[in-house]
Amino acid sequence: QSALTQPASVSGSPGQSITMSCIGSSSDIGGYKFVSWYQHHPGRAPKLMIYDVTKRPSGVSNRFSGSKSGNTASLTISGLQAEDEADYYCSSYTTTSSLVFGGGTKLTVL
Amino acid sequence: QVQLVQSGAEVKKPGASVKVSCKASGYTFKNYAMHWVRQAPGQRLEWLGWINADNGNTKYSQHVQGRVIITTNTSASTAYMELSSLRSEDTAVYYCSRAHLTTVTMGHWGQGTLVTVSS
Lengths: 110, 119
What we know:
The complex is a heterodimer.
Chain A: E1 9-12, E2 18-23, E3 35-40, E4 47-50, E5 64-69, E6 72-77, E7 86-93, E8 99-101, E9 105-109
Chain B: E1 3-6, E2 10-12, E3 18-25, E4 34-39, E5 45-51, E6 58-60, E7 68-73, E8 78-83, E9 92-99, E10 106-109, E11 113-117
Parallel strand pairs in B: 2-11
Antiparallel strand pairs in B: 1-3, 3-8, 4-5, 4-9, 5-6, 7-8, 9-10, 9-11
């Protein structure tokens, strides 16, 4: 199973909104409503931010939102804050009953 | 609250095996699947596999299939990930993660265990 495709980096200024993409195929993102997004600060455990494409776990800020169109999922962060600076990984369920991660996107808050 | 506490760092020689444990607390262990994920230095997260903590059914990534075994001890609320025939590329931080409301989502994570493979 090939990794999902994410841009290596995105950046934005505090208060701005950014959107990062996650491109898969009909065998993963396009075929299921099981896309998740994880925030990962180096040296710490990843944190679930979005699951089932659009749902937010309790405790996650509503500045984070997810969507999907065809084989592409997206994560939008509005009102950027310095603490949002981290690596973000998308994940999807696949036709082989396994999970696959994207390559990760490094978010820089300028 | 949900807590996952993993065993400590390991240093292994190529060809050896390593077994990492993940002790869970704060919930009914059998009610949630447990995933294992790793991150090699400078690399992306990589999903290794999961286990249904109720019936012991497993699913592994094709990348490590044949070298990885995930098990549980339900009486001890502990999950294990054993990786054999270690090679330098297996050097990574290994995480256990409890499923969220949907089995395919990783909701709670252990602190990570560094496994170093070096001769």
